[in-house]
Amino acid sequence: MKTFLTLLFLLVGPLGAQAQYIEEIGTLETIYETRARSVLNTILRPTDYTLVVSVELDRDDKKLKEYQDEVEAQYLPGMPLMGEAPAMPKSANRLHEMKARTDIHVVLSRNVNPDVEKVIKDLLVSKLHLDMQSGDTVALKRIELPADPTVEKKPTELPELTWKMWALIVVVSLLALSGLMFWAWRRGQSKENPKDLKEIHEYAHGPEDKKDESGETKEVVAAGSEPNAGEMEVEMDLLSIKQHVISIATQYPQLSSKSISDFVLKGHSHEVTLFMEFLGWDTSKKIYTDIPAVAWARIGQAIKNKKADPTKSEMETAVRDVYKVILADYIQHQMENEDENPFMFVLKMKPEERNHLLEKESASNVAVLCLNAPPEVTSDIISSLGGEKKSRVLSELTRIEKLPQDVIKSVEASFKARIAEMKASPELRVEGASVLARVVRGMSPEEEMDILKLFEEENPEEFDRIRRVIMVFSDLKILGTELLSELFDSYDTDVIYAALYRSKADVQSAVLAALPQKKAMLVERDLQDGVVVPQKSITSRTRREVCIKAEEVLMSRSVRLSDLVDGNVVMGKTA
């Protein structure tokens, strides 16, 4: 029995001592919290903050025993107390001696002025006699407390109108009324005399004024009727012809001059004269500078022989005839230019089909095609190639000095054979990673973040395919500090903290290295504390916005995401 009691004492003794320490820690924390609140209530409202005190005691059983003896001596049974009970017993001094560290956490409302934070910290350190060098800390945080009052904006009142404003309103009203009366008067005048005027200042004669040779009366249509609308359409058509002719003459002056000269030498100088009158003689001299003197002489002779002004129908017929000649030569010239390029059939293919064709071609054949392609098409071809093949094609381009005709024909034949092979056995090309990436981007930001995390943890191979098609947040570290600084420059510290919350350490380091020093310190401190848990919607939405911005920047710089992931391209400095 004695042995059993001894064992029971050994087991229960440490637990009792541990409980006693916890009780005394709570006593000391209550004392500090009472003092801190007495200080904060002088400058803040009780609803503007909340307070948490954490105290650590030295595990000294001797000092604890002394403290307990003093407490028992102070509160002996039957001993009367002099006056009221003290707010803090004298025995609490022993607890202060046993204190090892004090942590004060003050959570402020967002409505509190930021200038008060330093004052609060200084007052707490002074009132509680904290020693920062010994490990005591005072931490200030800001959140939206439930008791924060909602600020209702007062409706803005409209200013009272002065006598000047009333005078302006009266003047404007009178002007509007006079304008309305003038419009009504003009409208009545136009209804009274609609029969005398016609468009382009032509007079419309009455039935009794003019008769033809057979004695029949000519029917004259008043202005504004349906035939007049047809004349407007004709004029608009001639205006578009004029603009197109000037455009062709500006782009191909020699071709246009040659077309006019040939038409004049074939005996159509009268039509060309009417055509130049339609364009204007000054405009014709400026755009047709290469017409020979013989043609100009015939045009001058046609002007001398002209007896009467041409009618509208004659002018329209002459303009259309000359326009057909110029347009035919222009189209023929364009077709000849296309026939001069032997690889036009490849350049006219869709970009997807052309890329599929060039995947199986040698680097030398692709280089020959690039030499005969426009610069923008060459850029698309080079950017669509893989890293190794791209370097080989560029190397071939630098080595080419002469291009014999038999080499061009050989490459042309190779392309035609490859196209025939593709048509004989077509392949349906579907990139599963691209389809999956589009599906992921079609989800909500929260679902996208969850599905990418699931792929990264459980299916790394599929995640690796996806990250080559769309930018994922964990790959921001490969973008470099310059691009990261550009991406996060417009975000506040709270939004950046939400985006980096529970992200990988290397991503956090890369983003913090790209931020300004003060902003980086604030975000890093919040990440280390981890007290505030951001909303999942803010985290996911910010991550998606940053990734989409990164894709747009890479596209503008003609950088493929797959090359960046493989390490073939390095973006500036990396953290």
Automatic annotation (TrEMBL):
Residues 456-541 form the Flagellar motor switch protein FliG C-terminal domain. One of its GO terms (biological process) is chemotaxis. SUPFAM superfamilies: FliG (SSF48029). GO terms for cellular component: bacterial-type flagellum. Pfam families: FliG_C, FliG_M. Residues 357-423 form the Flagellar motor switch protein FliG middle domain. Residues 1-19 form the signal peptide. GO terms for molecular function: cytoskeletal motor activity. Keywords: Signal. PANTHER family: FLAGELLAR MOTOR SWITCH PROTEIN FLIG. This is Flagellar motor switch protein FliG.
